Amino acid sequence: MKRNFLNFRTIIVATLAMGLISSCSSDDTDGDTDPGNGTDPGTDTRWITVAGARMGETPGDGNGGTLIYSITSTDAKDPTVSVSPFDNGFVAPSNRTARLQSSEDGSTIFNISYAGDTGGNYTKYIAEGGQTFTPSGTAVSIAPYVGTAPRWIKLFDGDKTGAAVYVNTENEIDDNGTADDVTDDSYIRTKATMGVVTLDLVNSSIIKFSELEIPLSDEEEAKGYYFSRIDMPTLNAAGDKLYIGARLSKVDPTTTESDSDYEILGSKTIILDYPTLENPTVITSTVGHGNTNGYRSINAFEYNGSVYQANQSDPEGSHILKIDANNQYDNTYNFNLDDALGVQGAYILAWRPASNGKAVIAYRHDGSAEGVAGAQGFFALADLNTKTAQKIEGIPYDPDFYLFQYQGFVVDGTEIYLTQAPVGENGNIYVVETETGEVTKGAELVNAEGSHFIGVF
Q: Which pTM does this prediction carry?
């Protein structure tokens, strides 16, 4: 008999106003220096929070809101346990799919709501099992700094800091031309201005905000290239540089209209001094081409003194790129997923390494079936040290298994937890032991019509 976990405790979440919210309840603890102070589920286990994105108007769009539900890691590995976040879960405040992060021990969930009247509001919750997520500390809005639909990530600094970014662009035309009358001689460049804010996750306060131009070479700018999207800030091992992933786009210099047929340049990363958020520089890979900003999931991780970063939309298939301690790409490190998996057009949708340098990668490729919400997804087990990867065969795949919006993996030692379920269908949690490749089928995930699971935290 399946055990259905249900907690009927109702959590009332106050609507957050725009701007800094300095008030807190009498239960708040000012200056709390430990965000991971939830109820201990046991000495040999931890909370695993399952996240689901409800359908809005079409299957798989995820625009109907985000629901979360926590179980112990022991129950997460138990296929007799049934989890129903769409029926019983806690609604993570967000107009669309919430942008979730978790503490390293799984006890705390960090959320910044995405879009709508509450877009940009940061809140944190203590996981206490089931649908019980207790608000902790004060709340703050980062919307005045980076807008109501921010790109944000929790930095790997002991759950202390989050970072959010945005980019604005503007075409610069000289005195001989106007926006409606552009010639090769009058177009100068498309200026990209970046905003970066760091957020104290412990005390729920703004640390630092910087707004600055992002440089490209004169030659690149003259051809119409510019940074159109940035995301996924990552600290280097020394903790003195912030790496920011980026997507390049291009305009036609003769018209300033969007150019869709152009040479894909080498993958680029923006580097800022940290924590001052000053002195922007740009580095370029000669190994990978395309974007490094990722989408919904963290796209770069520090391992063994270097930062390893996925790229997307690479004409030769996604790569894992390496940035060394000298803050430059290591162009001798060539890890191409097409070659490693024997596919064409591999596209890394999300990934996460364990401390041993072995990683689980969510991906699609040119041979993926077209499902109800997009291209079919798969999981691979990769090794950063040997630059090898293989499809994980112990997980079932379906044409409607959709991973484009996937956000979260849980790393517990050398084990990595993930979710598998086609859009609108039930599935399971799976646990991959990265040392051996062994796959454990865990708790059943009960789905809802048109909805899908976006990971575990």
A: 0.89
